[in-house]
Amino acid sequence: MIGGSTAQIELDRLQPWAKRAPAITVAERKARIARAQELTDALGADALLVNAGASLRYFSGLPWGQSERLVAMLLVPGREPIMICPHFEIGTLEADLAIPVDIRSWQEDEDPAALVIDVLAQVGAKTLAIDPELPFHFAERIRQGGAALVDAMPVVKQCRMVKSAAELALMQQAKDMTLSIHHAAARILAPGIRQSEVVHFIDAAHRKLGASGSSFCIVQFGEATAYPHGLPGDRALEEGQLVLIDTGCTIQGYHSDITRTYGFGEVSQDIRDIWDIEKEAQQAAFDAVRPGETCESVDAAARAVLVKAGLGPDYALPGLPHRTGHGIGLSIHEPAYLVRGDRTLLEPGMCFSNEPMIVVPQRFGVRLEDHMFVTPTGAQWFTQPQASIDRLAD
What we know:
The chain is α+β, with helices and mostly antiparallel strands. It is 36% helix and 20% strand.
């Protein structure tokens, strides 16, 4: 399970992923838009402006990130979506869009905020709900043009937090792919292998399965595992060290994000003891998930395990320095969050990471990260948690 192979052998074993999840349908995207329009009206706004990024992809299928040029979609209850974009991008935009829209474009020497103001006047919208990811300078120019602005976070959050069956299937594929690569990465480990070699292998392995490479990759050996997002440098692996690998990919925009921590050779008993506490805390968080409970109650369940073991409390170290988990979907981190203070009620279809990392400062850290979704009766794992510190799976 750990060691005994090579990168080339493992890459040769991998084949393009056979069980591919279907794309989100046009009908589902139209239903999302209708829901957003209803929520916008309930918010007291006349229209919703969705900026380029994950939310725009959610509604329109457009896989564009944010840039200095305004690309956004205006949703007005009872009307076809209106897309604001640079004129020279119309051809690419039409090729990428998954739904019909009314395109309004601006030239390079024109102010796109002025175009938004003109369109708002044409549709009779005075109060505009603004995507929280819209850059401030665009929002301020729209406000100066006469629109009253409100925060669209309640609309975006309510739409995107609860995943459909189609979204769950895309996330399942991404997570299954990444988990299989975790197993392959563990097999290529050998004394002297460098972190960068493992990172390159994981990226190539994701590509071999059909993803566009790793969306991110953290590989840490020994003391570097004590830092949640690692340390700079390119360490070589030694016998008796702890290995922490955190990586993921995207499938049609939907993320995986899985962490495994295990020993390379024999590790000390105190590391094993902390690993066992980490696994117990992860299971406690899973067991605490029930519809109607709060997000913060899941975090509390994990921390209770740590406190009982003499760790913490709160964010004190040795202990858990960050939240227990985050929402995941088209963004790798998105609402809601498994952390004290987030009183969002759990609903079937919500998806979360479960990663109550334990850090022993300047020595080592253990993070086991899997993902789960809320069901009508509790929680269900996307991926089976790690079996033990010596084995990734039973």
